[in-house]
Design brief:
alpha/beta; Rossmann fold; 2 domains; nine-stranded mixed β-sheet; 14 helices; protein serine/threonine kinase activity; kinase; ATP binding; KaiC_dom; repeat
């Protein structure tokens, strides 16, 4: 069986989804409603062809050449080496009325003829036809449209060109299924959110005879590029890694965790606001930076100034670690990013920079990136599986409502993580104190004790076991000191 040759699209991550690019010398359909990005992707395809010295042709039935050049200029692109053939669908002439054909069929035939004449004149290797919706509008009879499209397909195959046909899914009638005629189909969608930027996604519906990555993939159109974020398949990624536990450089904390946190583990850090969850994550980032290992810290909730101020107050040299590229910090705006883009950012830090730890602060804000929480949780599960396969420690921070009493978990995500660290406030001797406990550690042993947790100017500290309280983890602590125990025993 002859191997299918692939053509680069000019969008590297789209080529990843297509397992190398678009099959050469075939017809492909990009469909989507107006504004989804069809023309932008098509222009990028031709610009890449011009770079490779391919002859490129853009057949414009719905836009003028001036409009196309303006679109390219908005992305700082030049259309040098790309021929543009501007075709206005032909209106029926009164002389055509004596034909046995309906006027609409005469118009359709003449328009197809103009398209084929333009292709014969320029003899291109890459062709964009924008859009077939204009051709469909000329066809009152679906059968006439079908005949002309099949004739156009046979003509194009004889030209040995790779063709992108664009369809905005608006024209009627739709009696003929264009998807069944072409070799490949890519669907683009654009969804509005209640707040923030629109979410763009694409899906390869079919690619006849060629492999591709199925499912929906988020993408974004920025100033000079089209960024596609291939959906993550954790099983496709594996890496051998050192099994030695990661130390926090706080002996009491490592003791509580049974020797430290394992590489490739996912750790949920739970607690109310202000209890020290982010500080605990910073302790690990600071510790591995001192060992010349890297951390990627993705913050949904606070600025870099706040983070650096907190680290400085705990005598952590995070600012220096950031300058030395041992801590990568990025502020994530949940209203401006898609889940696919966020996962792609994590992957780049893991695969390109070899990070040891990934911090997500916090999962509450991450879940606000879209309303379909069930699908998003599946993506999070896939991300944690991927990090596990790559030997990366994942620290996932979750804020809980309440402070001293009635502390509630807004989401039950402990089932997708290996370890759960619980932080709590409690009151004693007229002061507010903090407590830490490990309530779950799937791989290996851990202490079942509840210890005091402190944030001092010398850093994170873990104190002795709390013996005089009960109900600390439930959020309703009660003092049961020596006198209380004696009274209860009477």
């Amino acid at each position: 069986m002859e191997e299918i040759q692939k053509l680069k699209t000019g969008i590297p991550e789209l080529d990843v989804v297509l397992r190398g690019g678009l099959p050469l010398n075939r017809l492909h359909l990009i469909e989507g409603k107006p504004g989804t990005g069809k023309t932008t992707i098509a222009l990028r395809f031709l610009i890449e062809g011009a770079k490779q010295d391919d002859k490129c042709l853009y057949i414009a039935l719905s836009e003028t050449e001036r409009e196309l050049r303006a679109t390219a200029a908005s992305h700082n692109w030049r259309l040098d080496g790309i021929d543009i053939c501007e075709i206005v669908p032909v209106e029926a002439n009164l002389d055509d009325q004596q034909s046995v054909l309906f006027p609409s069929e005469v118009e359709l035939g003449k328009t197809i003829r103009l398209i084929t004449d333009c292709i014969e004149k320029h003899n291109p290797a890459r062709i964009v036809i924008d859009s077939v919706s204009e051709i469909r509008l000329l066809a009152e009879d679906p059968m006439a449209y079908r005949r002309q499209i099949i004739a156009l397909k046979l003509f194009l195959l004889q030209r040995h060109a790779t063709v992108l046909m664009l369809d905005d899914l608006t024209a009627e009638p739709r009696g003929f299924d264009l998807e069944s005629t072409v070799h490949g189909v890519i669907l683009l969608e654009q969804r509005e959110r209640a707040f923030g930027s629109v979410r763009r996604s694409m899906r390869v519906i079919k690619m006849r005879g060629a492999d591709f990555q199925s499912g929906w993939h988020d993408f974004a159109i920025i100033k000079e590029e089209i960024l596609v974020f291939p959906s993550l398949i954790a099983d496709e990624h594996h890496k051998k890694f050192n099994q030695e536990p990661i130390s926090s450089n706080v002996p009491e904390l490592d003791e509580l965790l049974g020797g430290g946190l394992g590489r490739g583990n996912s750790v949920l850090v739970l607690g109310p606001s202000g209890v020290g969850k982010s500080s605990l994550a910073l302790q690990y980032a600071n510790a591995v930076a001192k060992r010349n290992e890297r951390t990627a810290y993705f913050s949904f909730d606070e600025s870099s100034e706040t983070l650096l101020e907190r680290a400085s107050g705990l005598s952590m040299s995070i600012s220096d670690a950031i300058k030395r590229d041992f801590v990568y910090w990025e502020r994530i705006n949940p209203s401006r990013i898609s889940p696919g883009e966020f996962i792609w950012k994590v992957r780049r830090q893991v695969e390109d920079n070899g990070v040891t730890i990934v911090v997500i602060d916090s999962l509450n804000s991450y879940l606000e990136t879209m309303h379909e929480e069930q699908a998003l949780m599946l993506q999070m599960h896939e991300l944690l599986s991927y990090l596990s396969n790559m030997g990366v420690l994942a620290l996932i921070i979750v804020g809980q409502s309440g402070v001293l009493e009635d502390v509630r978990d807004p989401m039950d995500v402990s089932f997708i993580t290996d370890t759960v660290i619980l932080l709590r406030f409690y009151e004693a001797d007229g002061e507010v104190h903090k407590a830490i406990s490990v309530v779950k550690k799937r791989p290996g042993r851990h202490e079942s004790t509840i210890r005091e947790f402190m944030l001092a100017d010398t850093g994170v500290r873990v104190g002795p076991r709390l013996r005089d309280f009960e109900g600390v983890l439930s959020g309703t602590p009660r003092f049961i000191g020596t006198a209380a125990r004696d009274n209860n025993s009477e």
